[in-house]
Every structure is written in C-alpha cells, then in structure tokens.
C-alpha cells in the first residue's frame, strides 16, 4: 500500500518548485499524490484562501508537501499547521559547500513551538487608542516540544540543546516555557543551555557553531530561524517540517518570490530538501539520505539557478538532482 | 550653569567603563556629576536593585549615564526607562574601520518603541497549565515614536525609514503600530518601507546597506538591534539612548561581562560613545562629534582591548581617546 501525499503548489514559485520536488519523490518511492489548492489564486476564484476541502484532505493525509502562498500566507499556513496537529516546526539551517554564505560554518536546527505564543492570536481592540494581544504559553505544549527535542538530540547523537527565551522580561510566560522545557530535559538526562532571545541573535552571528539544536517559542523560532537563513545565504535553501503526532506538512521556508515567478528559474533545492524531510517522516531514511546527498552534490558543483549566481533553470537543476540519485 | 548628569556605574564592567566615559565628559565640558546606585551589588546590601532615591535622582536629572546591571538588569533598566519617560530607545549599530565585523558595511540606527509591547508586562497565571501575557500597543505611543523618527531622518538627511512589524500575524496590535507609524510619516512627507520582522532578520544579514533608520516595536527592536550588534562584531561597541521628552538615559548595549569584570581590561568604547550621545542630547553637538571622532580614530589604529584582539587595558584606551580629542 502506498502512502498518500497531499501536494499543494500554492502561488508563485510554489507552482515551479513543488512539481520539481514531486518528480524527485516519484523517482525514489511509490506514493499516491493528491493535489489540493490553497493561496491567493484559489482565493481569487472562490473567495477562500484555504478551502475546507483542502483543510480536510491535509488533515486526513499521511503527509503534505506545500509550496508557498502569497498575500494569504498567514491564512493558509497557520490553519494548515493546525490541520496536521503540528506541535513543532523543524527548521534546519545549514550552509552548503559551494554556496556563498555569511557564515559558512552554520549548521543548526531550530525546533520551534508551533501552536501558541503570540500566534494563539487573541487580539482585542479595547479603545480607539489601544489594542491588546494575549500571548499564550502552556506547560503542556512546552513539554510536548521538549519531549520531541529530547528524542531529536538522542537520534542525532547530540548531548543536549539550547533553550531560547526572554524570561527576564516575560517572566511568567517564558518562565513557564523555560521551566517546562528544562524539566523535561533534566528528566531525560539531556543537557540544556539557556540563551536569551536577544543574546542569541548576537551570538549566532559571531559564532554559529556555539549552537546545534535550538528550542524556541513560536515567534522567536520564526525570527531566529530566518536570521540563520540570512547567515547561510538566504531563504532559498531552507526546508522545514511542521510535525504533528501522526501527520506532518513540509514546506520550503521561502515565499512565492513574485519577482521571478512564472519564469521557471526558481531554485528547487529547498522544496526538494523539504521532500527529503517528508521521506524521513514516512520512514524512508535511506531514500531521504539519497535525495539530500544528490541535492548537496548539485549545490557543490552542479548547475545552479540565478539566486546562487548561475544561469540554469529549475528544470536543469531538478534534472541534475534526479541524475545524481543513487 | 552646568548641567547635572547622574552617573550609575552598576555592576561588573560598568564600574570600569563608566568612569572612563566620565573622564571623557570632563575633558570636553563642565558638568556636575551625581553618583547613584543600582544593580546586583546594591541589592545585596539593601535588598533593592533600584533604590527609590536612585529612581528619583534619575527622574529629576538632565541626563543619566548608566553602565550595566547583572542579574537584576531588568529590575533596574526597565523602571529607569520609565523614570526618564523614555518613549524611544535609539540604538545605532555601525561597523568601524579597523574592527573585524561579519558585515563591515553595516550602518544602521534602530528606533525602538520603549514603553509597551510585551514589555508592558501584564502577565497572568491562569491555571496550572496556562499563563498569558497581554501585549499592549497604542496609537499614541506609536505616533510618538513615528514623530521622533520623522524628525530624526530629517536631521540626518535621510529620505525615510523602514518600519518593522509582524502584522501578518499580530494583525490588530502590529497592524495598529504599522498604521500609526505610516500615517504620521505620510503626514510629514517621509517615506516608509514596511518589512516583516522575520524578513528583516534574513535581509539584514544578506545586505545591511538596504536599511538605515529602522523603526520597531519594543521586542523587535531588542532582538534586531542585538542581531545588528552581531553583524558589526559584538555588543562591545554599541551605545544607546533612552530618550524622553526632556530627560534621557544613556547606556552601552553590553552587559556586565562577568568573565572579565574587575580586571580593568573592558573596552570603554560603547560607554564613551554613549557619553557622546548624551552630549548630543544636551545640545553639545561639536563636543559629541569630537568624542566620536576620537573613539573612531583609536578604534582604527590606537591601542585596543582584548575583545578587539589587542592587549591594552581600559585605562590605556581611555587615555588614547582623551589624547586624540581636538
Ligand atoms: C507566513 C507567516 C504566517 C509564517 C509565520 O510567521 O510562521 C512564516 O513567516 C513562516 O515562518 O512560516
Ligand atoms: C535587560 C533587558 C531587560 C533589556 C531589554 O530587554 O530591553 C536589554 O536586553 C536591553 O536591550 O537593554
């Protein structure tokens, strides 16, 4: 029986890089692909950026590969994270040999809380002058994330992880987050190092090798993983996984790139690396490794798209990856 | 009549770099210095990190020069910002010729909202599992910041500024912030560019010259200015000003540096550059420029402290700055 993978191209270069990633998945496995729609284009047609049908399809699938959405990004991706029950957003940020990077020694993974913090989104307009947002932190979500982090570092053979927070200011909420995460880690015999969110931003620029697995609240994970993207040369190469208990959604960290959309010149690497994370999630570790190695090899000395200083198109890069699969 | 400047050394290297900055102020002007205490040390003695007397002295002064506080940093600096009625935290982040930097072309100023956001600090423990924090955004504080930003860019001869926010997620609160800031700028004929907080983190690493004056909510300003500190080589060189309607507090962005505190080897540059901002604030523009030029000259080819790869001590660097004053 083949697994069902939902495929949502979305908008912009999502329509170019997702088909590239699907062709790689087809080359290494036997999957059933189910197409679904979300984003600006479907909103223009139907009035809804995320049709209920798409939500349900994603919720029922084994895994989803998502491209990008334009103006409607938040209306699409935040509910889709809920659809897969995702409690952690896994964001590896590493530099690749052969690719220009501000900090070529960067090799980090962010484990971002994916359900609460400021994203819980209770906002109120209290007066003409004043609005509030209720930031939510629970011990249960923090523990859940920490349990995942402990398993993750054990699998990777790391001793421990860093916990980012701003508990010197958000004493009750980030204090709760920090305590819950540190407690779980202590119970599991996993080491932790606490780093204030602002200090992390300075230190990661000065020396990213100080960090390996970085556990963060939701917004901190959003901003600091994008910072790490800057250090490795841009969003173009970063995959991500929104992981839930028995479902997950994979997406390149980049957006729709309206400046180049439609020209067939987008870099498919982040989408293909997201497909590799999807393979890992479905238990195809060898296939995942095969794909990653092929992408790395192409990045090192294969054809490259304009964002990496080359003039190859999406198709040529994808063909090179397919060609270098084992 | 000479202005009254309150001096708070605080803890750690604050006790070394503040006297250095005071000696520079003494060399260029005629000020009355009033010493006050705050931080870990005074807390150990008296039980209070910020004695009421210190608060009142700062509130009544023309300006304050503050060093650093240790564990008690938040208990000291947040109320002191209130004491001077500070609505904006001005944080220049620039690289200096002669100093190693990840991005030597960085030359930015952050104008950070200094009264609200998550720092407004209404936190509640709602159950054993759940805590909340109420993030506060007002049109009035946002407008106030924007008015300052408009004056600032006009004085500096810039066309406009960047507005950082995360209004795609915090629609009501950061939407209010963005709208208020953009409206004020439009009214003043000042250009604005909106940048999402996460996108800013990526883009500033890739090319900091895209930005000049960056207007941010409180926490965004905290994290993104520390990120810029990483790009220019660390916190060691960054001054800052907490500006209120007719009072202000100046502080190096660095902390107490417990690893080197007491050894007399701390880099006094950030404290001296903070003193230069203080001179500007008091209307001594020529003296401020004189101090800045001397610091830059020493950074370029003078004696340097260990953090910049040298072996000079605080005294030698301070003497060199004094020596190079016009
Ligand atoms: C589009 C936006 C809502 C989203 C987020 O803030 O999580 C994006 O920045 C991301 O990181 O996936
Ligand atoms: C010490 C802390 C409360 C403070 C802040 O978060 O504002 C510090 O990080 C700063 O930026 O001055």
Automatic annotation (TrEMBL), chains A, B:
Domain Isopropylmalate dehydrogenase-like: 4-321
Enzyme Commission numbers on file: 1.1.1.85
Entries under InterPro entries matching the protein: IsoPropMal-DH-like_dom
PANTHER family per the UniProt record, alphabetical: DECARBOXYLATING DEHYDROGENASES-ISOCITRATE, ISOPROPYLMALATE, TARTRATE, ISOCITRATE DEHYDROGENASE [NAD] SUBUNIT ALPHA, MITOCHONDRIAL
Lineage: Archaea, Methanobacteriati, Methanobacteriota, Stenosarchaea group, Halobacteria
SMART domains named in the record: Iso_dh (SM01329)
EC class of the enzyme, as a word: oxidoreductase
Keyword annotations from UniProtKB, A to Z: Oxidoreductase
Similarity comment: Belongs to the isocitrate and isopropylmalate dehydrogenases family.
Gene name in the database record: leuB
Cross-referenced Pfam families: Iso_dh
Single GO MF annotation: 3-isopropylmalate dehydrogenase activity
Taxonomy, superkingdom: Archaea
Protein's UniProt name: 3-isopropylmalate dehydrogenase
């Amino acid at each position: 029986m083949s697994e069902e993978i939902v495929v949502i191209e979305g908008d912009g270069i999502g329509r170019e890089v997702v088909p590239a990633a699907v062709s790689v998945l087809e080359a290494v496995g036997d999957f059933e692909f189910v197409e679904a729609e979300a984003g600006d284009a479907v909103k223009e047609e139907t009035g809804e950026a995320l049709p209920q049908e798409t939500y349900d399809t994603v919720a029922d699938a084994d895994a989803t590969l998502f491209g990008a959405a334009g103006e409607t990004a938040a209306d699409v991706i935040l509910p889709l994270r809920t659809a897969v029950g995702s409690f952690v957003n896994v964001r590896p940020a590493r530099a690749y040999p052969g690719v220009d990077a501000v900090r070529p020694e960067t090799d980090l993974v962010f484990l971002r809380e994916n359900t609460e913090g400021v994203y819980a989104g209770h906002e109120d307009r209290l007066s003409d002058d004043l609005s509030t947002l209720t930031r939510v932190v629970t011990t249960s979500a923090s523990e859940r994330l920490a349990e995942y982090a402990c398993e993750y570092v054990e699998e990777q053979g790391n001793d421990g992880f860093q916990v980012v927070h701003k508990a010197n200011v958000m004493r009750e909420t980030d204090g709760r987050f920090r305590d819950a995460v540190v407690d779980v880690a202590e119970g599991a015999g996993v080491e932790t190092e606490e780093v204030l969110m602002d200090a992390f931003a300075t230190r990661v620029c000065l020396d990213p090798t100080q960090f390996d697995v970085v556990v963060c609240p939701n917004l901190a994970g959003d901003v600091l993983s994008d910072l790490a993207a800057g250090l490795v040369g841009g969003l173009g190469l970063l995959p991500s996984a929104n992981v839930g208990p028995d479902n997950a959604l994979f997406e390149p960290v980049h957006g729709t790139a309206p400046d180049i959309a439609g020209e067939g010149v987008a870099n498919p690497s982040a989408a293909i690396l997201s497909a590799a994370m999807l393979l890992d999630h479905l238990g195809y570790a060898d296939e995942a490794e095969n794909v990653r190695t092929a992408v790395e090899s192409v990045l090192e000395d294969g054809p490259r798209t304009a964002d990496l200083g080359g003039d190859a198109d999406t198709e040529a890069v994808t063909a090179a990856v397919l060609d270098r699969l084992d």
